[in-house]
Design goal:
The protein is elongated, with a radius of gyration of 29 Å. Strands 1, 2, 5, 6, 15, 16, 17 and 18 form an eight-stranded antiparallel sheet that branches. It has a five-stranded antiparallel sheet with strand order 9-8-7-14-13, with no helix packed on it. Helices cover about 30% and strands about 30% of the residues. It is of the alpha+beta class and about 325 residues long. A hairpin with a 6-residue loop joins strand 3 (about 150) and strand 4 (about 155-160).
Amino acid sequence: MMSALTAVLYGALLVYGAGWYLGYWIGNFSLLLFVLTIATLVYWLAERFKFAPARQAAADALSVQDAQRRADLAKQGISQVDSNVAAAREKLLMQPWWLDWTAGLFPVICAVFLLRSFLFEPFKIPSGSMIPTLLVGDLILVNKYHYGIRLPVLNTKVVKNNDPKRGDVIVFHYPVDPRIDYIKRVVGVPGDEVVYNNQALTINGQPVAVQAQGDYYDDDSMRYAPKFSEKLGDVGHGILVDPKRPSIYRPMESFVNFRDNCRYTAEGVTCKVPAGHYFVMGDNRDNSQDSRYWGFVPDENIVGRAFMVWMNFSNLRRIGTFD
């Protein structure tokens, strides 16, 4: 019965993973880890308090029966007994496969769940919107507690820590479809007026200074783009801006929350950041779908602060922290 149930559960997991991989649906890894943690915990508790004691009792009963049999035979003058109780006991004490692959995995799955939920979570950069800071294929780590402790799956903040600052690189649930995670740089915090006109950024009436750094070669697009250095708050970083491209921005139809906080002109866009929200942009300014198009990021959508590349299999020199 239990082996059949476990096989069904593993079958469901396989179908879910295959459909996610093939793109039939968008998976939720946090929810999957939570479900796996609870399921393996149930098996682990059952193993510890029911199945393991039952196997131990059966093995002990076998030893008692063997000792009694040997005693009875000894009374009849028979001292040579061929039975191998040790092998039988070992077989009785052995975990069945369905417990080995459930209860046995609980400590590992639980550790990964807690580490990923409250400390650090890995992400893979899927697009070039953050070039030159982050490249496609970079595997990054996100600090989950920098902005406060949130409940897993629900993402509800229960302990407050730092607030996002201008210049921070954050991972967040895409407001248009929260099942998808995005990564961008915080440009405007609550109360800021952000203006991006003619590819120049102004915050609260103060132009953000940029300095030309020559051309940057993008391996993915196989072309050069003008690179500049920019400083937001205390954070200096690189951006790509192509002056030859038109700076025409139109809001997406999905931009409905606080849509009236933004004004669009032929030169660009001006937005007043509402309370509890953030204005974010990609460092690859002419190749980024961000707050200029779909609006503000609510605080409850923020996953954490990205702070380092822990691996890039095509370029190991990418490993390290970044601004």
